[in-house]
Design brief:
It contains eleven helices and twelve strands. By secondary structure, the protein is α+β, with helices and mostly antiparallel strands. It has a single domain, classed as Sandwich (Jelly Rolls). Strands 1, 2, 3, 4, 5, 8, 10, 11 and 12 form a nine-stranded mixed beta sheet that branches. The chain has a three-stranded antiparallel beta sheet with strand order 7-6-9, with no helix packed on it. Helix 5 crosses helix 8 (117-123). The longest helix has 20 residues, at 49-68. It starts with a helix and ends with a helix. Bound molecules: 2-oxoglutaric acid. Residues 146, 148, 151-152, 154, 159, 189, 259-261, 273, 275 line the site of 2-oxoglutaric acid.
Length: 330
């Protein structure tokens, strides 16, 4: 995808902000106007503590479930190269990680909203969905969720280059939900206000003008990306902001905002967070959504691969049991 195609996929709210800036103040709430200007908005103390308690309680159970439940053992993991290779939670032991809560920074647990109703309720909580509905001008849909115990330690990046499973790439935003108060030593999220408003000439070229990264792009292109963004930040004079939230706060960022996870200063500290990426329902590629409150979830229910499904009891045994029960009942 070329930069001009990306720009033509932006939300109506953003196109107005860029091209007819006198119009949005007549239409949108102050939170949306802040977001259009900065590429980020912080909504203090809007997340229901009950929802956070429910999700944290499920997370506390997860290490045990990962060992005892074949389904939970298959939860996808990602982050650093070794996590990507391990692919699923139960394989982390092969990396010497016996309790993933104590894993070094970087580990991401994928799509826990598919496994836990509490995670789904949090991803679809009203303050997030209301905001995105106004921003997109239509119902939001969840693309993916990521759960972190510690900092991602992810270098500076813009999500649209990596999260592109939807048809209108400019319709992308993410919520950062702290699951606990976050300390400055736990390596908080860093971001650059205003960096989402790239002009056509400012996009990183991943090859032949493409603005999207691919997992197989060469190492040089990948390593030049970070220095390209650093240089852009420097020439534009964008200043870093650090998110030091209290539990209950919410940050929503634009899919093109430059951001990253800073390196851990104290690796013993946790930085529990839940990050959800959304698009507009009409831009989601999946076909069969189901409604969660006022949002739409397109995820498939999790299931074991066919070879790991519990084997049905041989038919003869089942029939014999039926005959015996029938005899007892008659
Ligand atoms: O929370 C973090 O450390 C970074 C998360 C992030 O960059 C992302 O999910 O795109």
């Amino acid at each position: 995808m070329l930069a001009d195609e990306y720009l033509s996929s932006l939300t109506l709210s953003e196109r107005l902000h860029r091209e007819q800036p006198e119009i949005p103040p007549k239409i949108y709430s102050s939170h949306i106007l802040d977001f259009l200007r900065d590429g980020v908005v912080i909504l203090p103390q809007v997340i229901d503590p009950g929802l956070l308690n429910r999700y944290n309680a499920d997370l506390n159970e997860l290490p045990m479930l990962a060992e005892t439940s074949p389904l939970h053992g298959l939860i996808g993991v990602d982050g650093k190269a070794e996590h990507y290779q391990a692919r699923v939670l139960r394989n982390l032991t092969s990396l010497g990680i016996t309790d993933f809560r104590h894993a070094p920074p970087g580990l991401k647990l994928n799509d826990l909203h598919r496994y836990f109703a509490s995670a789904r309720a949090l991803a679809f909580s009203a303050p997030i969905i209301r905001f995105l509905d106004e921003l997109f001008g239509s119902e939001p849909a969840l693309i993916q969720s990521l759960t972190f115990w510690k900092s991602s330690e992810q270098g500076l990046h813009q999500d649209f280059s990596f999260v592109h499973h939807h048809s209108r790439l400019g319709h992308l935003a993410a919520a950062w939900i702290p699951l606990e108060d976050i300390s400055a030593d736990a390596c908080p999220l860093v971001y650059y206000k205003g960096s989402h408003l790239l002009s056509e000439q400012q996009f990183y070229d991943w090859g032949a003008g493409n603005v999207l990264a691919s997992r197989d792009c060469d190492g040089q292109t990948m390593s030049n990306y970070g220095s390209y963004l650093e240089e852009l930040i420097h020439t534009q004079g964008w200043e870093p902001s650090v998110f030091l939230p209290r539990r209950g706060d919410l940050l929503i960022w634009h899919g093109a905002l430059i951001h990253g996870g800073t390196p851990m200063r104290d690796t013993a500290l946790t930085r529990r967070s839940y990050v959800c990426h959304y698009t507009a329902a009409g831009a989601h590629r999946a076909m069969a959504p189901y409604r969660v409150g006022v949002g739409l979830d397109f995820s498939e229910p999790p299931s074991l691969p066919a070879e790991e499904q519990p084997r049905p009891l041989p038919e003869r045994l089942v029939n014999a049991a039926r005959r015996r029960l029938g005899g007892l009942l008659s």
